[in-house]
Each structure stands twice: as structure tokens, then as C-alpha cells.
Design goal:
By secondary structure, the chain is of the alpha/beta class. The protein is built from five helices and eight strands, in the order αβαβαββββαβαβ. The protein has a single domain (2-14, 31-147), classed as Rossmann fold (3-Layer(aba) Sandwich), CATH 3.40.50. The longest helix has 12 residues, at 2-13. The N and C termini lie far apart (30 Å). This is Methyltransferase domain-containing protein.
Length: 148
């Protein structure tokens, strides 16, 4: 059900652009944990990447990361961020999912379930009081919870 809603939202928003805003600024702790986990995957997908800042910064730290979002941001080059719903990505044991400060609309739990079913790792970054909304700890705890 949520996949159909995300697809409908993507269809409605495709071709539009919104201003560049940054909702997540990584800390040194984040980079240390992600670097340590990076030996377990070939690629990690920053789901809901927005401007694509995080993948650029990760690549500068030799962490293979790509970014997807359902809405284009003004000022991004065409290939910097793939405008694709996260649940359409080919997650696997080698391609993990990353969600940093999601918008609490339910898609993050759906992403966690998809990652689990695909054998992919799932990394969640968020504030402790949002965990109940964003992730399903009964399903499969994320490979790492990075709380800020």
C-alpha cells in the first residue's frame, strides 16, 4: 500500500524542483560508524538524499554511496541525485539502505522491511524520540542506529 502511495507521489512530483535545503548534517561519530560498517557493503544508498550532499561527502571519505530522492532540488546537476523512489532500488547483501532523519511519513519503515527482505543492511540515523515512528524494532533492528 505505501509503495503505491509513494509511486503516486513520485508521479505527481516528477519534473518539479524544490529549493535546496539540508536537514541532516553528519557528525564525526556518524562518519566513524559508517566507515567501520562500509567494509560490509559494496554500495550504500542514501534514501531521501535531498541535495545529495551526503553521497558527495561520503565519496570524499572513500565510502561508496549514491543518493536517491523523489524530488529534484534546484541547482543539482542531472546525475548528482537519482530521482527514483527508494523502494525501487535493487537492495541486496552488497547494496545497503541508509535513512538519515526521514520525514516520519511511514516510508522509512517500508524501506527497512524492503532492505530486510532483500538481505540488505539498513542504517537509520535519527533522534531517539522519532524511532517509534521511523523504524520497526520488532521487524529487524537496523544494523546500526545512529542517534543524534
Amino acid at each position: 500500500m505505501i509503495e503505491e502511495l509513494i509511486d503516486a507521489q513520485w508521479d505527481q512530483m516528477y519534473g518539479t524542483s524544490i529549493p535546496q535545503l539540508r536537514f541532516f548534517v553528519p557528525t564525526n561519530l556518524f562518519w566513524r560508524k559508517l566507515k567501520k560498517l562500509s567494509s560490509r557493503f559494496s554500495m550504500i544508498i542514501d534514501c531521501g538524499t535531498g541535495n545529495g550532499d551526503l553521497p558527495k561527502e561520503a565519496m570524499a571519505r572513500n565510502i561508496k554511496m549514491a543518493g536517491v530522492d523523489i524530488i529534484h532540488r534546484k541547482g543539482n546537476d542531472p546525475c548528482e541525485v537519482q530521482i527514483i523512489p527508494a523502494h525501487r532500488m535493487p537492495f541486496s547483501p552488497d547494496i545497503w539502505a541508509l535513512a538519515c532523519r526521514p520525514n516520519h511519513s511511514g516510508w522509512c519503515c517500508n524501506l527497512q522491511e524492503l532492505a530486510t527482505e532483500s538481505g540488505a543492511g539498513f542504517i537509520y540515523v535519527g533522534m531517539p524520540n522519532n524511532m517509534d515512528t521511523d523504524v520497526d524494532l520488532d521487524l529487524n533492528p537496523p544494523d546500526d542506529l545512529i542517534l543524534d
